[in-house]
Amino acid sequence: MELIKGKVSRILHLIFVAPSMIFIFLLAIVPLAYAVYLSFQNYKLTMPNGSLRFIGIENYVSVIKNEAFIQSIGWTLIFSFFAVIISVGIGLFLAVLLTNSDQSQSVRLLKSFLILPMMVAPVVSSTMWKILFGAVYGPINYLIELFQGTAVSWTGETLPARLAIVVIDSWGSIPFCMLIFLGALTTIPDELYESALIDGSSPFNSFRKITLPLIRNFISLVVSLRLMDSLKVFDPIMIMTDGGPSGSTESIGTMMYKIAFRYMDIGQGSAAAVIFFIIIAIVSITTLLLTRKEEVK
């Protein structure tokens, strides 16, 4: 009887999981497999369908030899580094600040206000920031000039353009980090802080010796999620700079899109997509392994 119940239970588990597995298979595995298939084909949208033919790794060689694509990999990694540090750092700071504040009506309203950027679509927020960073009539340049500064060409110079992209991405991701850390901080018993206060510990020491160790797993989670998300940056770049000036803000995602749909080379675009997938997988797995080692220590 117990054996029959065990088999029925396993079958029921498979039945309940099956729809999700089918959904993931159709929307993730099948497109990935098709992209890998196309990456080995000479497939251009400007050519007839009958001209599609197998060319081996030529698409991969062409993509790797493309200096603009290699440059986009470097910029994407640099962007991810700064975007993750800024969003995680500010998100943690705001979470600690709000947790230690009196939970008054004004503080609750402030929390709701700080969450708003996360609820705005990336296209909308990027368009809004493009207006703010306008070189001639932008409010940001107006404030700079108001304080006797020099107006900045936010889309015409490499460094300002890259800073603008980092600001746009961080603005939209800080609320997510803050929410995770707000939940993490509620798991820490107040008695620990009270004991530390009685022992004469300063707020900074309490944060360093109590808060950080106890929310380390949450920090690792947020860093991993933000890293994977920042590597896929697309909307801010396409709307704000379109990869300019001179391709200095091209990310892997925007290069992949342009190769496939602007230059009409689906084969090379698919090869770029596969390389992109491998880079994200390597970075994500490395981050998880490093995090696991820290947890073991």
Any key phrases for this structure?
single chain, 297 residues, flat
Secondary-structure element order, as H and E? HHHHHHHHHHHHH
Structural class: mainly alpha
What is the distance, rounded to the nearest whole angstrom, between the alpha carbons of the first and last residues? Answer: 46 Å
Task: Output the number of helix runs.
Answer: 13
The overall strand count is 0
Shape: flat
- Percent helix, as a range, is over 70%
Q: Which regions contain 5 or more consecutive residues with pLDDT less than 50?
A: none
Major sheet, described briefly?
Answer: none
Mean model confidence by pLDDT: 87
The radius of gyration over CA amounts to 24 Å
Strand content: under 5%
Can you tell me about this structure?
The chain is built from 13 helices and no strands. It has helices at 2-38, 58-65, 67-100, 105-119, 122-132, 139-146, 158-185, 190-198, 203-214, 216-231, 235-240, 252-262, 266-296. The longest helix is centred in the first third of the chain and has 37 residues, at 2-38. The model has no long low-confidence stretch (mean pLDDT 87).
In short:
The protein has 297 residues and is mostly helical. It is built from 13 helices and no strands.
Structural topology:
Elements: H1 2-38, H2 58-65, H3 67-100, H4 105-119, H5 122-132, H6 139-146, H7 158-185, H8 190-198, H9 203-214, H10 216-231, H11 235-240, H12 252-262, H13 266-296
